[in-house]
Amino acid sequence: MSLIDWSRLILLSLIWGGTFFFVEVALPHAGPLTIVFYRVAIGAAALWAYCLATGETVPRNGAIWGAFIVMGILNNAIPFTLITWGQTEVTAGLASILNATTPLFAVVVGHYWPSGERATANKIAGVVIGVVGTAVLIGPSLFGAAGSSLGMIAILGSSLSYAFAANFGKRLLKHGSPIVAAAGMLTASAIIMLPIAATVEMPFAPLPTTAWLAILGLSVLGASLAYILYFGILASAGPTNLMLVTFLIPVSAIALGVAFLNEQIEPNQLFGLALILVGLACVDGRALRAFRRRPAKPETG
User: Fold this and answer.
1) 74 with 161: CB under 8 angstroms?
2) Residues 94-107: what's their mean pLDDT?
3) What are the counts of helices (DSSP H) followed by strands (DSSP E) for the chain?
4) Looking at residues 64-88, what average pLDDT do you find?
5) Which of 34, 176, 178, 264 lies 20 to 30 A from 66 at CA?
6) Among residues of the chain, what percentage have pLDDT more than 70?
7) What pLDDT, on the 0 to 100 scale, is given for residue 248?
8) Any residues with CB less than 8 A from the CB of 298 and at least 6 apart, and which?
9) In angstroms, rounded to a whole number, what is the distance separating the alpha carbons of residues 163 and 274?
């Protein structure tokens, strides 16, 4: 990858790692559904403003908007809600580690998806190692407090939803600008989330400045700017290189949680993260290929 692509990748990891931090800051002041609604609604508005400034046109085909709705459910409404609610039970750092299992789920879903990418031996090994790592990460709490266990399961559910979205989303790239697709996806999810949030919570109740700053971070940075970077990397470096962002997100999320939220990371969580990263390396395959290509040392004597 070029230096520009690496810069985009690192910036994207910092932004998406920061979303777990922003959620943690906003949760004491707003319900999970309210946070998700504002995240997608403001993010959609910002992206449409970007499209207007760059001369993009709004699609009017009903089939395309149907795809936006499905993608909005799979890539925004479900995972954002599960992650945000899950963070009412677990820390931002732990949530980011669990979310790093997304490529492992993507391997399984892609193998069975029509015209999806078939699993190789390396990928299957990566999934197995990743599952073991997730079990180590969750540790005894899987059989302990129901609250924290349900929070972890919710975030794992978001990873599964992202995996379905990644396979379904390929068709959106066939319908014009990916930035327009992202804006349409966020718009559809905002329309879905509004009645749900209004029924369960009070999304239009006054919020303190701290909460609004966190929500703006989630929407303008974590949705709008993140998708611009995401599709820029995808176009210039390809999906395999883009997946490297998953390795970096937990690092930035954990660092922010420890620095600003006084969160503690348990040894089993670090060991579980290490196993998940090994699993991701197997799925990615490049580290193994580089090892196999390593030239033998010349004999001396």
Assistant:
1) yes
2) 82
3) 14, 0
4) 93
5) 34
6) 85
7) 74
8) none
9) 21
Please, what's the b/e burial string for 114-137 (b: 16 or more CB within 10 A of its CB; e: otherwise)?
eeeeebeebbebbbebbbebbebb
Spatial contact of 249 and 96, defined as CB atoms under 8 Å apart: yes
Place of tokens 């978001």: 158
Distance of CA 190 to CAs 38, 78, 84, 116, 156, Å? Answer: 8, 12, 15, 29, 23
Give yes or no for a contact between 184 and 59, defined as CB atoms under 8 angstroms apart. Answer: yes
Distances (CA, A) of 186 to 69, 82, 216: 9, 16, 15
Which residues have a Cβ under 8 Å from the Cβ of 177 and sit 6 or more positions away? 51, 56
130's tokens: 């990743």
List the chain domain ranges.
3-286
Residue with tokens 């883009």: 242
Quote helix, strand, coil % in the chain, to nearest 5. 80, 0, 20
Q: What angle do CA 268, 272, 278 make, to 5 degrees?
A: 150
Residue 144 has pLDDT above 70, yes or no: no
pTM assigned to the model = 0.81
CB 211 within 8 A of CB 29: yes
Name, in order, each residue with C-beta under 8 angstroms of 129's C-beta and a sequence gap of 6 or more: 275, 276, 278, 279, 282
Alpha-carbon dihedral sign for residues 106, 109, 114, 118: positive
The residue assigned the tokens 């800051």 is 25
260 within 8 A of 21, measured Cβ to Cβ? yes
